[in-house]
């Protein structure tokens, strides 16, 4: 007998916590108290029409954070707004922009969203507010989908232009002379979803903004910049690095929220010797199902399209057996048609749809209202992402529940056993390096194309002359008789830069499944080796593609869509040579270093691994040339810590400790673990000592290694904690990596090495501080 | 926290310098600077004004003069004038042509790239105007980026507010590019009274007998000019940029001659159009396709009477068993092929014009880079628009459309009937048009029903021959039922007034 009677969220949760098989996996249970709304008043200068329009949309008064931001923007101050999901962030910029337009219709504003879909959502929402306010404002999306005839109309008369950084970079800035009405009157630049601009992408976007502001100066406008971000550790710093200007931080959230329960759940260990655990997906389904049966709106997040499909069909099947509300559970992911997605969003808002299983497509600012329960099948990879997904659950004046189910991956395991990481109120810091030499050079080329450089003119960190002279050696730019630097090549530099990849030379991925082949995306050469070799399964927006052919010389990979139950993992054989040391400092048991390295990478074979279980189901050879990558790295040498070790044991210890450090580094720096490459050498030819290198897997790096150098102690301590907390016997993929030789205790060896590198002392220091 | 952040400021100036040096060293090891466009040595470091020297060198090589103005130096090449008589009154009567009293300025540019974006430079601007019957050409060449203000000033002298520009694809390319240059210099481009871009005119009138619409092809077909040994468009940017980098000056002569011929062709083409098509009497000998195209050009300006004249002349001209230029008549297969080419061709309207700048490349990049372009145009029924050959039926249909626009319903219906003579699916479409006119305009529902039946017979025959037209049949079915009902109603209505109601 099952009950389908609607039940309150709290009652369902209590019942589940009494069920031993589920309760056993709960590693941590935290209750976040309810909070009341904090309101402020509309500023006196606000146009009564806008006020009336807001009231018509049910917004009588602004929250404190909205009022603070609106006031600052109106006063011409740059602002960065950091509040949780669904706290009304967009109002912080739409209201002052509308006010500016009401005062002066010739004013212009530019909204930047990281993806097309978000921009289109925003235009729809903005137009509704404009209509309710009875104003005449033309707002439009300018993206790849915009038809040509409409484009020229937007260039001339679009008062609010909504676009994405890629479009700004390749279609607007190089053609700025056709956009002079926009540039001359630009008052506000909005950068929404600020936290997505990190790593390589962020480094590029920072330079795109430099180019944008340079052109604004040429046309005599001085726009205010408004950034909006999900909760991250360093919003003001990120905004400053990205925009190059200090901005005022608005982070006092005035939006109300109900009581919220956060559960961190770990699937039980099935086999201690291998550390094998139960499936995160199955456990996530088990937690979600009772809430759905009780009529509570629930969102389940999966990390891939396949995970979403598996959970969706299982949930529906279970609900069907029980004659439950099967058809009211839907899937949501990239690849669905926009109309379909809009229908699902609407259904969630008005309650017609009860449950949704989604990829992180629902993580960004799509409006689906507030739900009762969020279940995360796997740690989303960042604390900010976790909060974004957990934030989907949260009713005003009612209890909500967020459940994070860990997968066996090392990063997941580390996070789940350090609740303070997720809940301690100190999310990761988003990092980018706009002065990465490769990125900077690429954008100086594009900037020269757009407008000649004056001698001594600054671009980013300083005068651009030296870099221009370097480019001049290649013949791309030249210094003319007036001393200015001009673009002097027939190429179109913006088309040579992909904002989403690091190196100028990329492999283009072409999808041959549709009637007309289309370009899916690009990857840099270094990543191409492991991502798009022949027979690789390439994931794009959580859709799987099979790589049929890789034309290495042509830099083209041909793929077609498939649905496979496995993914591929290519083994990279890496040799590393230090080129230059930027900084070095003594550390317990050795030395920590930050510098530049040359990494040579050869990929010779790949494995096919089953989804969910990671079971090996086959392999194949890869025939690709070796490539070199000049990048920055952090490394630690263990000359003191490793004295008196047996060579074979030291080898195992270095690998194990290195893997754990790599996992912790990915967590600390909010990056994909694949962004950091690992090399360990028992006797580094350079230092003549055992060495662990973590290098950035993109040319020139984005400043991660410098951060690692500074946080060396945390890495060593964290790595030891990760290994110690792992319930396996002697090392497993979740901590020190897969066991290569069964009789060796990789766990103990790695811990011994880390202790000699100061993990114990570090942990004591930490305890003393606490 | 702050201290830590300060320590972590990425890439201090010192490390940046070191990294640049490392990158240089790596590149040197790999053999040369990154993807340099050529192997020419870089020019010596900046050392003040050199362009005057280069300008003199260029002037000597190109038999031109140096204009040393306060705004910069320019190489000015005055071409020996030639006689191109042009009757402006006659020209003005043609569709889209300038009024007889407006001064004409022919203009063509050579550029450092094919995008009309901010970094593309018009380094050579060819200009011409008529002085009586004399066609006077001047070419302006930039010796250096820094001298551009002098070039812009001189263009502004040529393009006066009452002038009309004459270009080939200048609306989409040359003029927007020049406007961008003015905008970059912080001023507005010169105002002018009008702009005749000859490309759309050529496309409309002559495309039925040309492989493509490049100026070079047009010259060959219409003016009998051939350009052996001419420099290729895609070579041009490289030749000029090499000169800027200190490369040889001589190859630029070919570019200058190329530009000179382009500008002269503008004048010759305009004169050719005026002479052959300016008067109804003069165009009798023209191929009927030209006349049909001209009719469309008139139609665009709502000059339907003149369009009708053209079509009448075209009907009178012999059907193109062989076209006057000796090519075989165009068969359906060739038409399909041609349409495909047309969609992909660089000059097809939906694509960005391609005026050189890049070497031709094969593979996927072409069609993909052009974006969309996939969907075929709105061809009401397969084959109707595709009948590129200007058959009697197609001309009749064209004529019928013009007559309808002139509200000459009865004649339009007659013309459609003539178009229906060809039978087949196209004939059925023509009969449907007859039915529409009879029903809605001529007040003849019975006649309309008859036309519907005629269309139905043609479709039945088509179906027997294995070429069914289901959508047309559905449309005809609805139309027939409605007409029959209407006729019944009006007949019944007459009767119903008398006894019918119980």
Describe what you observe in this structure.
- In chain A, 36% of the residues lie in helices and 24% in strands.
- By secondary structure, chain A is α/β, with parallel strands linked by helices.
- In chain A, strand 21 (506-511) and strand 22 form a beta hairpin.
- In chain A, helix 3 (48-56) crosses helix 6, helix 12 (280-293) crosses helix 13 and helix 16 crosses helix 21 (647-669).
- Chain A starts with 8 loop residues before the first helix and ends with a helix.
- By secondary structure, chain B is an alpha/beta fold.
- In chain B, strands 1-2-5-4-3-6-7 form a seven-stranded mixed beta sheet, sandwiched between helices.
- In chain B, helix 7 (198-206) crosses helix 11, helix 8 (215-223) crosses helix 10 and helix 15 runs antiparallel to helix 16 (409-420).
- The longest helix of chain B is centred in the last third of the chain and has 31 residues, at 470-500.
- At the A-B interface, helix 18, helix 19, strand 26 and helix 22 of A face helix 1, helix 2, helix 6 and helix 9 of B.
């Amino acid at each position: 007998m099952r009950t389908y009677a609607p039940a309150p969220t709290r009652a369902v949760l209590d019942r589940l916590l009494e069920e031993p098989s589920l309760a056993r996996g709960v590693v941590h249970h935290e209750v976040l108290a309810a909070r009341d709304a904090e309101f402020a008043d509309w500023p006196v200068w606000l146009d009564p029409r806008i006020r009336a329009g807001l009231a018509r949309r049910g917004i009588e008064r602004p929250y404190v954070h909205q009022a603070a931001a609106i006031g600052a923007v109106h006063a011409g101050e740059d602002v960065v707004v950091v509040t949780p999901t669904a706290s009304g962030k967009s109002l912080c910029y739409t209201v002052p922009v509308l006010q500016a337009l009401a005062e002066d219709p010739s004013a212009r504003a530019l909204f930047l969203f990281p993806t097309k879909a978000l921009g289109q959502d925003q235009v729809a929402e903005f137009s509704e507010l404009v209509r309710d306010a009875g104003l005449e404002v033309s707002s439009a999306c300018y993206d790849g989908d915009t038809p040509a005839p409409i484009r020229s109309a937007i260039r001339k008369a679009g008062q609010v232009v909504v676009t994405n950084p890629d479009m700004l970079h390749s279609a607007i800035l190089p053609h700025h002379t056709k956009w002079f009405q926009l540039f001359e009157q630009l008052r506000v630049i909005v950068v929404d979803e600020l936290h997505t601009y990190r790593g390589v992408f962020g480094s590029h976007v920072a330079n795109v903004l430099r180019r944008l502001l340079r052109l604004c100066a040429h046309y005599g406008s001085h726009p205010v910049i408004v950034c909006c971000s999900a909760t991250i550790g360093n919003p003001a710093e990120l905004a400053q690095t990205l925009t190059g200007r200090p901005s005022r931080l608005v982070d006092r959230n005035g939006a109300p929220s109900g009581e919220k329960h956060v559960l961190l759940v770990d699937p039980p260990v099935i086999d201690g010797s291998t550390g094998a655990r139960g499936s995160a997906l199955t456990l996530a389904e088990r937690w979600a199902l009772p809430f759905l049966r009780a009529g509570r709106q629930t969102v389940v997040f999966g990390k891939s399209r396949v995970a979403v499909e598996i959970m969706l069909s299982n949930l529906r099947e279970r609900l069907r057996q029980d004659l439950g509300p099967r058809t009211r559970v839907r899937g949501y992911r990239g690849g669905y048609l926009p109309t379909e997605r809009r229908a699902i969003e609407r259904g969630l808002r008005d309650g017609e749809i009860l449950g949704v299983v989604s990829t992180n497509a629902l993580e960004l600012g799509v409006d689906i209202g507030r739900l009762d329960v969020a279940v995360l099948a796997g740690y989303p990879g960042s604390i900010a992402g976790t909060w974004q997904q957990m934030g989907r659950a949260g009713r005003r004046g009612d209890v909500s529940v967020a459940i994070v189910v860990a997968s066996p991956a090392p990063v997941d395991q580390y996070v789940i056993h350090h609740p303070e990481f997720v809940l301690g109120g100190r999310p990761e810091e988003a990092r980018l390096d706009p002065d990465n030499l490769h990125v900077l050079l690429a954008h100086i080329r594009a900037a020269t194309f757009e407008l000649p450089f004056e001698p001594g003119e600054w671009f980013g960190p300083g005068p651009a002359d030296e870099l221009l002279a370097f480019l001049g050696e290649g013949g791309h730019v030249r210094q003319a008789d007036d001393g200015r630097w001009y673009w002097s090549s027939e190429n179109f530099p913006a088309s040579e830069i992909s904002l989403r990849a690091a190196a100028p030379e990329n492999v283009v991925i072409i999808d041959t499944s549709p009637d007309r082949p289309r370009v899916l995306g690009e990857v840099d050469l270094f990543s191409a080796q492991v991502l798009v070799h022949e027979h690789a399964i390439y994931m794009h927006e959580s859709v799987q593609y099979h790589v049929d052919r890789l034309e290495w010389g042509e830099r083209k990979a041909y793929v077609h869509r498939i649905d496979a139950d496995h993914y591929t993992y290519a083994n990279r054989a890496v040799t590393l040579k230090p080129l230059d040391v930027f900084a070095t400092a003594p550390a317990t048991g050795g030395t920590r270093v930050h510098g530049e390295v040359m990494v040579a990478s050869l990929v010779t074979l790949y494995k096919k691994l089953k989804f969910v279980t990671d079971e090996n189901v086959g392999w194949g050879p890869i025939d690709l040339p070796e490539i070199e990558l000049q990048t920055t790295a952090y490394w630690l040498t263990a000359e003191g810590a490793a004295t008196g070790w047996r060579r074979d044991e030291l080898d195992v210890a270095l690998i194990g400790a290195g893997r754990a450090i790599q996992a912790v580094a990915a967590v600390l720096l909010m990056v994909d673990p694949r962004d950091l490459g690992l090399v360990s050498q028992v006797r580094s030819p350079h230092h003549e000592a055992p060495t662990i290198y973590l290098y950035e897997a993109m040319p020139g790096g984005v400043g991660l290694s410098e951060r690692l150098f500074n946080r060396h102690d945390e890495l060593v301590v964290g790595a030891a904690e990760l290994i110690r907390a792992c319930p396996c016997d002697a090392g497993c993929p979740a901590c020190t990596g897969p066991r290569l030789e069964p009789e060796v205790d990789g766990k103990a060896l790695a811990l011994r090495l880390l202790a000699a590198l100061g993990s114990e002392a570090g942990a004591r220091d930490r305890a003393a501080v606490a | 926290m702050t201290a830590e952040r300060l320590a972590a400021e990425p890439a201090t100036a010192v490390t940046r310098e070191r990294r640049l040096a490392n990158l240089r060293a790596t590149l040197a090891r790999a053999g040369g600077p990154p993807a340099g466009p050529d192997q020419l040595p870089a020019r010596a470091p900046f050392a003040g004004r050199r362009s005057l020297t280069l300008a003199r060198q260029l002037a000597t090589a190109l038999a031109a003069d140096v204009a040393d103005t306060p705004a910069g130096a320019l190489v000015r090449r005055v071409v020996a004038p030639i006689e191109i008589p042009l009757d402006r009154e006659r020209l003005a009567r043609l569709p889209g042509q300038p009024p007889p009293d407006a001064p004409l300025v022919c203009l063509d540019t050579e550029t450092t790239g094919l995008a009309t974006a901010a970094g593309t430079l018009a380094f050579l601007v060819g200009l011409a105007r008529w002085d009586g019957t004399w066609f006077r050409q001047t070419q302006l060449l930039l010796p250096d980026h820094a001298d551009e203000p002098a070039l812009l000033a001189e263009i502004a002298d040529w393009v006066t507010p009452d002038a009309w520009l004459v270009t080939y694809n200048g609306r989409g390319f040359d003029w927007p590019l020049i406007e961008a240059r003015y905008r970059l210099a912080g001023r507005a481009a010169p105002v002018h009274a009008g702009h005749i871009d000859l490309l759309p005119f050529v496309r409309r009138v002559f495309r039925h007998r040309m492989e493509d619409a490049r100026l070079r092809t047009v010259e060959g077909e219409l003016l009998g000019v051939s350009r052996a040994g001419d420099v290729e468009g895609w070579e041009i940017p490289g030749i000029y940029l090499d000169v800027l980098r200190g490369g040889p000056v001589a190859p630029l002569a070919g570019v200058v001659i190329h530009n000179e011929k382009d500008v002269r062709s503008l004048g010759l083409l305009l004169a050719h159009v005026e002479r052959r098509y300016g008067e109804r009497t003069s165009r009798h000998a023209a191929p009927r396709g030209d006349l049909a195209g001209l009719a469309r050009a008139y139609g665009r300006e709502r000059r339907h009477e003149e369009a009708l004249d053209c079509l009448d002349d075209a009907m009178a001209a012999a059907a193109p068993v062989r076209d006057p230029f000796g090519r075989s008549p165009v068969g359906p297969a060739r038409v399909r092929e041609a349409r495909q080419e047309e969609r992909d061709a660089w000059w097809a309207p939906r694509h960005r014009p391609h005026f050189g700048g890049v070497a031709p490349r094969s593979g996927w990049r072409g069609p993909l880079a052009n974006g969309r372009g996939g969907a075929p145009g709105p061809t009401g029924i397969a084959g109707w628009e595709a009948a590129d050959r200007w058959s009697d039926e197609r001309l009749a249909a064209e004529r019928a459309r013009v007559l309808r626009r002139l509200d000459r319903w009865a004649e339009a219906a007659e013309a459609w009937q003539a178009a229906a003579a060809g039978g087949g699916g196209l004939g059925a479409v023509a009969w449907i048009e007859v039915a529409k006119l009879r029903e809605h305009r001529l007040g003849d529902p019975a006649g309309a029903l008859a036309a519907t039946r005629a269309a139905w017979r043609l479709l039945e025959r088509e179906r027997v021959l294995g070429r069914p037209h289901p959508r047309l049949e559905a449309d005809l079915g609805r139309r027939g039922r409605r007409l029959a009902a209407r006729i019944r109603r009006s007949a019944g209505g007459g009767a119903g007034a008398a006894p019918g109601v119980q």
